[in-house]
From TrEMBL:
It catalyses: ATP + protein L-histidine = ADP + protein N-phospho-L-histidine. PROSITE patterns: HIS_KIN, PAS. The keyword Amino-acid biosynthesis does not apply. It comes from the Bacteria. InterPro entries: HATPase_C_sf, HATPase_dom, His_kinase_dom, HisK_dim/P_dom, HisK_dim/P_sf, PAS, PAS-like_dom_sf, PAS_fold_3. GO terms for molecular function: phosphorelay sensor kinase activity. Keywords: Kinase, Phosphoprotein, Transferase. It is an enzyme of class 2 (transferase). Its EC number is 2.7.13.3. This is histidine kinase. It comes from Aquimarina brevivitae. Residues 270-481 form the Histidine kinase domain. Residues 131-201 form the PAS domain.
Amino acid sequence: MYTNLLFQSFFYLSDNFLMIIDSDGNFKKVNDKWKELGFSKEELIQTPFVNLIYPEDQAETKNFIAADEFSNTASELKNRLVSQDGDILLIKWRFLKIDSTEDIIAIGKDISDQTRQQLTYEAFTKDLKEKSKKLEDLFELSEDLIVIANADGYFKKVNPKWIEILGYSEAELLSTPFMEFIHPDDRSKTTTMVRKQMEGTTAIKFENRYQTKSGESVWLEWNATSVDQTGDIFAIARNTTAQKKQKIREQATLKEVRAKNKQLEDFAYITSHNLRAPVANIAMLTKFLEETQLSEEQEKLTKLLTDSTRILNQTLHDLIEVIQIHNKDNTKLVEVSLEKIVKEVTNQLSGEIMSSKAEITTDFSDVSIVRYSEIFLRSIFLNLISNALKYKSPDRKPVINITAKRLKNSIQLTFSDNGIGIDLEKYKNQVFGFKKTFHNNIDAKGLGLFMTKSQIEALNGTIKVSSTLEKGTKFTINLNL
């Protein structure tokens, strides 16, 4: 009786699934654990055990029970139970036949969480191995120089790029204090940076020079950080030697160009100023000649001389104007009203505007005041408006439209007209050239657009042109803020 009571207590209080089934697999008795599947005991007693098994596991479970291999010793089986809500539990069973009966007692332990944890661990381990393999591949194949260094000042691990760039063997790189590979002039700042990294600072785009085994200097740009409390430093360096050399060449070229430009400006300035007096004297002498009695042949020669002197004098005047573009007084920035500039320029060109019946419209609603060189701005407006009048179409009244628009980092001015246009396919690279003209206009000097572009670029702006023959031209200017 005591044994039976003990069995009953264990059967109903156990935290595992307990059941007694007959040899056909029909439930005869179940404990309260089965309620977790959502079925009542009455429902279970009327249902074959195998019907609660996940479909893919049913055949194996049937065969296991039919085999009757657990008469003397307990046998184990794993299968999946399906709850009334469709949840799936993985159960590990132990089956044993009850003495002198055909009934079977079975105890099942829910190992779902344990299995999930195992699967999660295995998946995590697999993922970690895959990531480690990828990191190792990255380390080995990277075009950058990757290194792990310790707090004692030695490299612990270097990738093959170090050997390729510096020319040392891996053994040499790992057995020598890394400071000895650094250019002597850069050791002090590198020591400071290493100390900061050990204190927790991350190095971003830190630059120093390493020396190769053959004695050449290699520029490296570093991103580095301390890994953990061990003081180890993980760092990636990009070889910037080619860019550095290119930058040095560009700086040297720029310095040389500036020096030559200064020489040319000085030469042009001295030459133009020194020639003005002789040219003025020639002009005066030709005037005296014109006032004397000359033969017909002499008059022709005098006229040629007068024309040549006038052209030479104008060229000198233009040259001086170009030279003075970079004059500090000319590039002084002030607040300038666009309406005021337009009014001044249209007053200056009033004769041409009236005779051609030109219509000039403006839209400065977005921006009406700009901070710019007033001298340059007046010159730009004068050149572009006078150009539009000069190259108007004989078939229609000139219409010139000027707008101003505020962009993110600039003010955009546009000058558009309905004139004869420019053949950009033919003259695209000459539009802003010095003394370049594109029409048979006797007033064209080829200086206005050159001056305009030079003045705009002197203050880091840009100018572009678009044009269609017989339809008109549009100039787009961006003035840097």
